[in-house]
Amino acid sequence: MKSTVASKVDSAGPSLSAAAGLLSSARNHRFNRMIKQGKIQSQPAAQLFYFLNRTCFNGLCRFNQSGEFNVPFGTYKKINYVSDFHQYQKVFASWKFSGGDLEALALEGNDFIYAHLPYDVEFTTYSAGGFSWEDQMRTAEVLAAHPGPVILSNQATPRIVSLYQKLGFTLSYLEAPRRISCTGDRTAAQEVPAVRGV
Fold it and tell me: Are both 108 and 28 inside the same structural domain?
């Protein structure tokens, strides 16, 4: 999949920008059709998701209440788009990527888990059903009970810090850039990597 059209959008003016938006809409529609047809685990779906991620607004991944990908086309002068992933093939050959509810995953006791949870902020509807405070607590509790190494990260809100400390995670803090903001505020936010068993 090529990103030539998308990478030229800013310099070409509004007519090409509108055309790129239509292309993006068509790609969203195709991707959502793959989801509905149960083809989301296919190679074409993975390629299309990568294209959508690189060309949509700020690389945001969001699904509506119907489970459809619904992020609009972004505005870019240049798109960083890797077309050859062979260098990663050996690294990922023994990895297993899974999606779904954490408690439904078949984990071995020594499995390493990295979980980057939805931020504990006002907007939590990145997918159908959202991600509530109860989901935050349940996920942290499941991860705290895992006997193997665990790293999870979240925005360092007072209740997240309190929850992770109560569950025995070792916390550190870092300033993380914000690429997505409904108000345009890109001020760095404090993030908390939390560690157990590492």
Answer: no
